[in-house]
Amino acid sequence: MRTEAQLQENVQRFQANFWNKERAERPLIGIYDERVYMPINFLRRPFSRPTVTPDDISEDRLMTEYEYSFANRPVSCDDFVAFSAPWRGVPWLEACCGCQVRYSEGSLAPAHFVEAPEDLADLPIPAPNAWFDCMRRETERLQAQRPADCWISPSILRGCSDVLSAMRGLKEFYLDLHDDPQAVAEAAIRVNALLIKALDMHYSIVQPQLGGYGHIFGYWAPGKTIVIQEDVMGMCSPNTYRDIFMQNNAELVRHLGKYVMFHLHSTGYQHYKHVLNIPGIAGIEMVLESIGPTALDLVPVFREILEKSRLMLHVGSGFQLLPQVLSKLPKEGLFLAIPDKYIRNDQEFHDFAATIAKS
Q1: How far is CA 90 from CA 77, 215, 246, in A?
Q2: Do 112 and 97 contact (CB within 8 A), yes or no?
Q3: What is the pLDDT of residues 292-313, one digit of tens each?
């Protein structure tokens, strides 16, 4: 468990060097166990049926992220914020919109069920299936049991396009964007309202800790925060994002405030310029993947983002390129999240921090 002094130091660095973009010797650096992003590992015992219901989500079946990954982490001097969240194995918004939650060994996934785009208009959102109440119950439980050095984060709450693609099926959703974009746009507004309702519920239960809030991507923010996800837009023209979904993201930012980030993958980031034009967006979080452009290829994109806003990089790939990459970037407004397979203990952390401070 981290001490109060360590937590205060983390919070001060995030406030000064990330949010305020004050001059820094090094960027924020968080070290994490990659397995924390595979929530199926948190099961104490498997489910007995091919579908999961709200009654199956219980403390005796599931470990929290804190219990699984943060209670005894090997690096103690980094900036990664410990968190717990309603179990991320559940696709919460998709389930709240009516998707069955399917279980197989190794994963959970939503089952699509909407036959045609015009059917979206008649669906109750949220669906009367108790998943929203389950998310509230789990949030209340986690908040009541929170360790002193842990923040309670919203779970994975995907954006309108991701939820609608789950409801319709991915192929059908992409066809809908061409054949009936109006039906998609109208349904997206309703899904976005549910997302806002879920965030309001979360922040009615979870109160500030050390003056702010934590998130499942390992950062601290001085106000209510979320990272918007519209992953299926990585396969579309950026103008499709702009014309149909950007307005909903802008509405979420207006509602929640100035600490809303946006999640992208290095294999599907083409709409980032439109994201940067969302009024009040706090910045971009990007996952670096082993296929597609390298971190060096993306340096011009990173510079553009940092000139206009803030950048979080989850370094799933390309760690060996970081000294070269960081030598070309400002350190202010930058947060690096790095798997602990690359930095295994405090001494390796200090060595890495010293190396990039010189770059």
Answers
A1: 32, 17, 25
A2: no
A3: 899 999 999 999 999 999 999 9
